[in-house]
Amino acid sequence: MNALRFLTIGNDMTDLIEMEGIGKTFAGIVALNDARLSIRPGEVHAIIGQNGAGKSTLIKILTGVYRRSAGDVRMNGAPLAISTPREAQDAGIATIYQELSLVPLRSVTENVVMGYEPRTRFGLIDWTAAHARTREILARFGVDIDVTRQLGSYSTAVQQLVAIARAVSLDAKLVIMDEATSSLDDQEIETLFAVINTLKATGVAVLYISHFLDELYRICDRVTIMRDGQTVNTHRVAETTKLGLVSEMLGRDASEIQAAGLTALSGGHGEPGEVLLEATEIRSKTGLRGASFTLRRREIVGLGGLLGSGRTEAARAVFGLDPLTGGTVRLSNGAPLDTPAAAIAMGIGFLTEDRKADGIIPDMSVRENITLAMLPRLKRLGAVDRERERKLVQHYIDALQIKTAGMEQPIRELSGGNQQKVLLARWLALEPEILILDEPTRGVDVGAKFEIQSIIRKQVADGLSVLLISSEFEELVEGADRIVVLQDGRSVTELHNPGVTESALIGAMAHHADAPDTKRSPL
Amino acid sequence: MSDTFSIDLRRYLRGGGHSFGVWVALVVVIVFGLMRYENFGGAYNISSFLNYNAMFIVIAVGMCFVILTGGVDLSVGSVAAFTSVVAAYLSPFGIQVALPGAVLAGLAIGGINALFVVALRIPPFIATLATMLGAKGGALVISGAQTIAIDWGSNFTKLGMEKAFDLLPWSIFITAAVVIALWIVLERTSIGRTVLAVGGGEDAAGMMGLHVNRAKVFVYILSGGCAGLAGVFLASGFGAGQPLEGIGWELSAIASVVVGGTLLTGGVGSVGATVAGALLLGLVFNILNFENGRGVISLSAYWQMVIRGGFLFAVILLQSQLSRQPKGPQG
């Protein structure tokens, strides 16, 4: 019947998936209200929107994790009833989640065939056939690995390809990729894109969710924008502009955004004051080979450079996490910094790159996560002053607009952007003079990115000094007063705002990348 | 076929299953015993050793499944005590009634564990602690806290005494059959692989569309059934239902599983290595008995326990050293 329908309407307008008027309510709270989505066979379709826009709810309805409260879902024109992940898989809808939903302790083969194992005529699992099938599918993507090994012994990129291989082995018609590139390096992203093109060529549709707009333009055919639980629009990607997408996502006027810049870091924040911190020719076993920079009061200094240029290493050295093998880090009062405890005592904070591993304590509440580092300061007569603690936490929840059901909500239930705000609040509560921010807006959506950037800017205007590491050139170009460009563990040049452009920054990084050692930092 | 075999062998040798150490230790202990004691390899010692350890082996294998899902079953010792009494009461009707009856009782208690853990979402440690106390109390109640003699006139006595095929007691063949069946279940069936996947990552297993709850229900019922069977062996071996037995058996079973290289968090492990672990723990006692028999030293049961503890530690240390595999190729 499906085939017949497909033939009769059989032009390129036949949708593989059609979701219409989808509504979803959680305990009285509306998460989705009249959401739409249509995906054609063999296309790469992006969904974008801020956190809370309803992207993941919509996808979870499609994959059987949630049940819709209203609306219709059709596949190839026929109504689709899915109430469990298993049914979605059987219908040909496979999902590759942001947090890999595979079992790292088990073999590659098991992860590919689990639940659908080939059998011998006695009904037992035929491992020879299972290994062969797994090898064959991975070979299609140009991956040749020992499929009998534990999945966890391979890199994230390979694990992701294994997840895709699983989808293919289940004969998926639609593969959903949720933030698939967020933990991949550039080369791995290229491999993934090649795999996506292979899928496309075989008629498999891909639903692509990403915070990186640049990726959209490289790989996607169409894009659906969601906001506040509704579908705002669907465009052909080629007919859109980045600014247009952002304005639809935020529901703000494009010209307004253009005037303010793409980030909320731009614009002056007062004249920098005296020098607070001076790193001179620092070296470490982690790869620093002579990096120098200074940081003044009320100043944002960006550390620019390619991955592995020593940006994070420089920050870690300043914070006393990695011992120096040469050079000095000195504060304005002459105190040396050698341990994180000393750094914190001297008013330095460090928001690390890896929120999950180094930052949040998932099961603790928002309140506890904020005040963890400052409990000693909240003590009165040996006990924590609850009243003061609550006031302080409420202050930061309001000031940073942290979206939470209450300060006692476990932090793991918050979105990535709000988790990052909590971590920011943790450091700000210590009232630091210097804050080191390593990728402060990575993995958070555009709206939260904006908010975090405005918070940083406001704090700097109030006298904070920031050492900023960011892979997003926009953030450095618009936000930093000065950008110290690192290359191979050395500081090679320094760019001064106003006047820095993205191409100038890339040029500086690339120029020195071609010829290291030829130019030294003017410092 | 040979391809599969070579792959599996390689996996073992590489220590991928974390279970290489237990096999090394087992071979070393057996060779040591054979060289040092004349009767160690004799038919009598082998037969009585296996006959006595059969109940520990089946319990350990059941426990292995539970631990593979990341759970634990503390009730096994009490369940065995309970079902030994059940078996003793049913013994007049013959083995064909007593054995299935006792196993059924074990399966039922396993079902209660499954209900607690899966339907009521009570942590396994607490749920099975409750059934451990409950089964213990039940055994004392139905027996009046007395050992219940089996009916010596029935064929129930044949289980631990009569040799099947003129070779070894029936209990050993039954145990071997159970072990082989469960080995096949774990390695070659969907439910077995689901058990491993659940332990390796419950959420991920659910996302993959696997029947997580079904696997959990399965392991608790299986463990209960294994403990039920152990109770049958207990009753036949001692000639009576033993309501006071079974104390600490759950810990021995956990030790066997862990020595066999199964991760306590689940996800990785094997039936074979668990059996090896149970044999190894039993052999340590066996060897100490031989040593006492030589008359040179005389170790009390208490000291034997201390030595067993030390041995356990040594084997686990060996395991962790041997299973330190180099990190796989990246990319």
From TrEMBL, chain A:
Its EC number is 3.6.3.17. GO terms for cellular component: plasma membrane. Residues 17-253, 257-513 form the ABC transporter domain. InterPro entries: AAA+_ATPase, ABC_carbohydrate_import_ATPase, ABC_transporter-like_ATP-bd, ABC_transporter-like_CS, P-loop_NTPase. Keywords: ATP-binding, Cell membrane, Hydrolase, Membrane, Nucleotide-binding, Repeat, Sugar transport, Translocase, Transport. It comes from the Bacteria. It is found in: Cell membrane. Its main location: membrane. Gene3D superfamilies: P-loop containing nucleotide triphosphate hydrolases. It is a peripheral membrane protein. Pfam families: ABC_tran. One of its GO terms (molecular function) is ATP binding. This is Ribose import ATP-binding protein RbsA. The gene is rbsA_3.
From TrEMBL, chain B:
The chain crosses the membrane at residues 20-37, 49-68, 102-122, 167-186, 217-240, 271-289, 301-318. InterPro entries: ABC_transp_permease. It comes from the Bacteria. GO terms for cellular component: plasma membrane. GO terms for molecular function: transmembrane transporter activity. It is found in: Cell membrane. It holds the Pfam family BPD_transp_2. It is a multi-pass membrane protein. PANTHER family: ABC TRANSPORTER PERMEASE PROTEIN YPHD-RELATED-RELATED (PTHR32196), INNER MEMBRANE ABC TRANSPORTER PERMEASE PROTEIN YJFF (PTHR32196:SF63). This is Inner membrane ABC transporter permease protein YjfF. The lineage of its organism: Bacteria, Pseudomonadati, Pseudomonadota, Alphaproteobacteria, Rhodobacterales.
